[in-house]
Amino acid sequence: MSGFEVIDAVRAPVRYGAETRWLHWSCAVLILAQFVLGELMHRVPHAWHGPIVSVHLSLGVLLAALFVARVAWRLTGGRAIRFAAGPARGARLAPLVHGGLYVLLGGVIALGYLACWSAGRPVVAFGVPIASPFAPPFALMSPVAHQRLGSLHGWLAWAIIIAALGHAAAALYHALVLRDGVLRRMWR
């Protein structure tokens, strides 16, 4: 080991940066809110349906923006942090779970936009319409296609919740059983 590597190891951060933590927890809160709103919108009286859909769409656009920022942050090394390697299985599994969450979240966001646009409606976020970038005949799809996109959107939302619960359970396992400090890295 050269002296430079020793200095790097000494200066290695013990926690993720504020930006990474903020992106992580903001996305987590929005995902949970979106899931609850998505489940509620089909179970409330008709008078409540429109306002819940409006909030769901607005928060969905906000989540999409955060998702893009989070992917850019990750690709540019913003979340780069070196820690001592844990068990080999965990070291291989964690990136797969994180990558899977990114794929699921990107998919559910894309399907949300497509489901709305497939009915010929813009996505309205905070009162601002976002028109479909697709020209006819792709701008308005059949009711069956619209229904399938909405169903896939819902199924992926459930998959995200299940994966996120697994992610949270793994963090708790690290905190309570392994006591290796993994969970503390994402707190203040």
Automatic annotation (TrEMBL):
Name the Gene Ontology biological process terms. Answer: respiratory electron transport chain
Its subcellular locations are: Cell membrane
Q: Does the keyword 4Fe-4S apply?
A: no
| Signal peptide feature range | none
* Primary subcellular site in the record, as a coarse category: membrane
Is Electron transport one of the keywords?
A: yes
* SUPFAM superfamilies according to UniProt: Transmembrane di-heme cytochromes
Domain (Cytochrome b561 bacterial/Ni-hydrogenase) spans 15-187
Alphabetized, the UniProt keywords read: Cell membrane, Electron transport, Heme, Iron, Membrane, Metal-binding, Transmembrane, Transmembrane helix, Transport
Q: Which GO terms describe its cellular component?
A: plasma membrane
Task: Give the record's family classification.
Answer: Belongs to the cytochrome b561 family.
Q: What is this protein called?
A: Cytochrome b/b6 domain-containing protein
| Native source species | Nguyenibacter vanlangensis
One of its Pfam families is: Ni_hydr_CYTB
Stated membrane topology is: Multi-pass membrane protein
Transmembrane feature ranges: 22-40, 52-73, 93-116, 123-143, 155-178
User: What are the GO MF terms of this UniProt record?
Assistant: electron transfer activity; heme binding; metal ion binding
